[in-house]
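User: Run a structure prediction on this.
Assistant: Running it now.
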Amino acid sequence: MALNKISPRWPVAAMTLLVAHLAAAQQLFEYTENDFSGNTIPLGYPVPIPVESTLPFDGFRTYASLHARHQDLSLQHDFIQATIVGQTLAGRDIWAYQLSDPDQSTRFSGPESSALVIGGVHAREWASPELTTGLIEAYATNAGDQHLYDYLIDNVTFTVLPVTNIDGFLQTQRYPTEVFIGQDPREPSWPRDGRMRRKNMNNVDEFLLTNNDHLFGVDINRNNTPFWASSSASSFDPTELVYHGTSSFSEPENVAILAAAALAGTDRLRWYQDSHSFSQVFFSKYTFNQRRNRIQDRLLTTYSQFHDGLSLQRNGERRVYRDVPDPAGVGIGTTAGYFAYTHQIPSWTLEIEPQNGGEDYGGFGANHDGFVLPESEVTRMRTDMAITHAVVTYKQAGPPTVREVQILDDRGRQVYFAQWTVIGNGQRQLQTEMIQALLPGFDYQLRVSFDKPMRWEDQGPALAPGLDAIALTPNIRILEGNSALIIPNREEGQWLGRPGSDEAFLNYRYDTFTVDFSVPAELDLDDSGPYTLSINVKDFTGQSLDANPATITDWSGGRWVGYESTNGSDQDRGGSDRTLAVPISPQWMIRPWLLRGR
C-alpha cells in the first residue's frame, strides 16, 4: 500500500544514471540483481519471477497456480467452500473461500462468528496473495489437530478472498522485470505499470508498450465509503496512483469484497483485514465507538506480540508490527474504513514486511523495492503469518467459558457433576448432579472443562510465543462467602491432551484442567453449604473467562454482549466464574456417610 520508499543506500552511480534518464520522457527500466548498466534497477538479490507450481515453495506462484491451489484444496476438504463473488472488468471470476465446517454453528454456543481477510488489492504486492493462500493451506494442513485449527473449523466461519485485483496482478506477472519511470504526477521517480502496477485495469489494455494508458486504472483501496473522495490521500486525477474512481464502489472488485462479506455473514463478522505490503505496520481504523476501539487495540497487541515472539522463536529475529490508527471521523476511502464504520468491527490494513525496503534483506535499497520481497523470504513469511492469523481468529472468536465440572473421589467415582447446555435465545441452562457432599478429611480430584483449547502448544502445553506474561494455570478456590475454605495447589494440576498421551480431554487438547485437592479434616462447618466454586483463568491470548455462562457471549454494536465480569458487569473484560455451588458435609455428618460405606 505504501506509495514511496527511497533509500539513501542506493548506489550513487546508479542513482545518477537514473536521474539522467528521468530528465527525458518516461522510459522502460528493467529490474536486475546487480547490473547497473543502461536502464536497469539493481535490487541486490535475484529478481523474483512467478513460477507455475501449485504447491508452496520459497518463491512466488503464478496467479493460475494460486487459483488452482485454492480450487484443489476446496475439492479435497469439505470445510473449504469455494464461491464466485464477482468478476473483474476483463470478465475473470473473483473467488472467495469459506473455511468452516458445514453446520454454521459452534459446538457449544449457537451461530458461528465470522472473519474476513482479503488480499491482492494492489497488484504489485505479490506477498499478499501468497499470505492469503497460506491461510487456506494452513487450515488444510492442520485440520485434525484436535487443538487450534479444529477449534477454528468448528466455531468460526473464516472467509478468505485471496486475490482481489486479478487483472492488475496478472499484468505485473506478465512483466515481472519491467517498469516505466518518468511521468508519475506526484513524483517522476516513482515506477509505474508493469511489475509496479498498483491499480486495477480500468481503461487499460494488457500490452505494456501502450504508453498512453500505463498511468490509468482505479485504486481499489480508495473506492469505498464512508470516506470516498474526502482526502488528499486519494485523487480525482485518473493518472494518480490513488485515483478513487468515478464514485464509491464503482469498481467490480469493490463490489466483490461486499459479496465476500455477505458470504461470510455480515451479521456475524468479528474482524476484517485487508492484506498489503509494505512497511510492517497496521493502519487500523478508530471509530467513535470507544469500546470497539479498545477491543481492537487489545486484538492488535496480541497480533503484534505473538508474531514478534513467533519470529524470534522460529527464526531468531524479532519482527514487531506497530499500530498507526486513523483518528475517528477521518479516512481515505479504504476497505478497512468501510468495515470499521459500517459493521463496527475491528478493522485494519495490514502492511506486511519489510519495514524499510529491500535493504532489510541485504539488498541495495532501490526505489520501491519493498514491494519486491526476495524469494528466499516467502516461505517464512507465509507460514509465520498463517499461524499468527489463526491466533488472532481464535481470540476474536470469543472469550472462554466453563462448560462442565466434575469432582471425583479418591476411588475415581463421580460425586459431583455440572454442565451448561444451550437452550436457545442466547441462553444456557445449568444441569447439576450432586451424588455426595464433600467430606472433611478426604481427597478428591477436580476436572474443569472449557469450550476452547486454553493452552498453546509447541512440544507441549507451553506459553504462546510473545505472550509469556499470561499465567498457565487456573486459580481455583472453594469459597464460603468471599473467604477461601479450600485452595487446591494449582501448580500440581495439569492440562490434559499432551500429544501421545491417553488423557481424556473434552473436545480439544488442553480444554480440560485437572487438579487434586483435600477437604481439611479440621473444617468447622455448621451445615453442608452449598459453597461456591470460584474459577479464574485466561486463555493463551490473555482473554479472561466469561463469568456467567448462562448468557452466551456474542458481538453486537461494536462490543461484546453477554460477557460478564465477576460482579456481573458487561464491560468486555470477564472475570471469575462463581456460578457453581458444591456441598461440603459438616463434621457431625461424616459418621453416617462412613456407615453407609461411602
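The chain has two domains: 12-277+356-396, 402-595.
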